[in-house]
Amino acid sequence: MKALLLIDIQNGFCPGGNLPVPDGDAVVPVANRLIRDGGYDVIVASQDWHPADHGSFASQHPGAKVFDKGVLSGQPQVLWPDHCVQGTQDAEFHPDLDIGSVDYIQQKGENPAVDSYSAFRDNDRGALTGLAAYLKAQRVQELDICGLATDYCVKFSALDARDMLPELTVRFVSDASRGIDREGVASAIAEMRARGIGIVTSDDILSD
To answer: Which of 16, 64, 171, 194 gives 20 to 30 Å between its CA and that of 2?
Structure first.
């Protein structure tokens, strides 16, 4: 069984959102082609789904500024602008994403005391989202991961997939992903490659 995991392709991370990733909306048509023609048995999407008082928001720390470095649940934490708050337009999937073809949506970041970059578990690794159990139940053997942002939620999800589901073949789809900055993207790709994650493009997949 082959699965595609779409990471946080939401309004909040696209141009016009509260935490836009440069060129973030460019992943949508590529993701849609993968959904349509990639030959996947299972399509999964993660969704940042924060309460309004989430501790990763700079607004929750008096005197802090957006993008300051702090600590949350014992982990280093970038203090973000308020984003992807539950029930807001910012948290909705990009309107052009073919979300109707998604089999399972994994919401994350719901605990205000800890952030959840990964779709699999909280940053302090204290709580699992349930995604690993779902993929096991679906008998997934190959997992392709893409979305927003390469240097944060995509990278951490890919690394956790390798750690938590070592029997899987995991690949990162580079042209269906965008990152916050070029240096961070290069570092993330190097780290993923070093951990045995394949680096592919949508053309590689669609030509299989």
So the answer is: 194
